[in-house]
Amino acid sequence: MGLFSFLKKKNEPVAEAPATRLRAGEPSRLSAEAERERQREIARATAAKIDAIELAMTTDLLDDGDTGWGSSHRPPAAATAPLASSADTELGLLDGQLEADLAPANAPVVEESAILYANGQADLAEGMLRDCLGELGRSERLPWWMLFDLYQSQGREQEFDSIAIDYASHFETSPPAYTDRLPRQAQEAFAGAAPTLRLPAALDAGLGAHLPALHRPALPGTPVRLDFGAVRSAHAAGCAALLASLQALRRAGRPVVLAGADALLAVLRPMLAIGERGSGEAPWLLLLELLQLLDREKDFEETAMDYCVTFEVSPPSFETPLRAVADAGAAANRGNAAPALAVALDAEQRFLLPPLVDGDIGALLAAIDAYASSAQAASVQTAGAAPVVLDCSRLARIGFSAAGALHVRLRSLAGTGHPVELRDLNHMVAALLRLLNYGDCARLYAHKY
Fold it and tell me: What share of the chain is helix, strand, coil (3-state, %, to 5)?
């Protein structure tokens, strides 16, 4: 497959392409040099203010007598010495180095766009990222990934699909699938420990023995988290058992959070063919149920028509999936009820963060403290340090001041000897947390494309 026209020179004629397609060397939305420079000045000014805030936060932390973390004090960016990079080291803000010497994760355009996005200036962040695709984006994938996450968090499927085609052509890989991650704050405010079940590699007749735990009594609004990342095969009996559980959860009004769903979709799709009934209806209906939970209405409608043709029945209708409805304050007040159920289903507890973390996050921090206390109690029983795992699969954006407050709290938790992990971060948020030196107290795991 040849490269798209964005790799051609300016003076070469190119075929007509949709306006949303990117062509390196041609003007993008921020085509004027003056406009680009203006945006960079805005971003640098913002970064300077934020450095001052962060320094003040760090100073306050040290003044509180938390000597255990004294070695992590970091001066303003302008005076910071370069840090060595490695696969396991998260880098802070490195200023004063040549751009060519910087790793992609802390290239200036990545840092500046992450800061702008955290401060609610998504349009400026988008413009900077799109503008760098013709240079940094020629060799590095991170700017593309950040744009993918930005578009999904804003529900902009058309723009996502446009650059996904260019990305696939340029890097000669399959394009990523779009998932609507537009935060619905009124419906998705849950924050707390969610019951978790990690599905086995084979979904067979034995799966039914593990599923009843999903239906144990729980407080209203408590979501169930299912992890399909390890699934490699499926059989009709296992599909039927999982389908029955998902339908029962929907009837009971329990929100469902899916992790690694694409792994199960990749197993189910090859099992199905239009006009072939050999696999039975269960894999078809399970695929439709998953697409509905993922809020992929277009894929659902196409698959429903194929199912209709194959089994000569009326196609099922799409229903908007139920979202988590409890709030962070309730999660803090209800104590250890939800974590206890999580232990029954999976040895690893996870604290599910809300889609937006910004402003006053005192209630959220209290809920994290309650969750960490339950993790400590579990570690006493198991004679091992239970990790404090924050599930960021729904986290679309974290404000800068909120990120600073969360950093201080996680440092304190890490000081108790329990490892702290932030899982399934989107790449916009991950870039910000690297910039704020979260690596001094936590492991960061961005989701994969």
Answer: 50, 10, 40
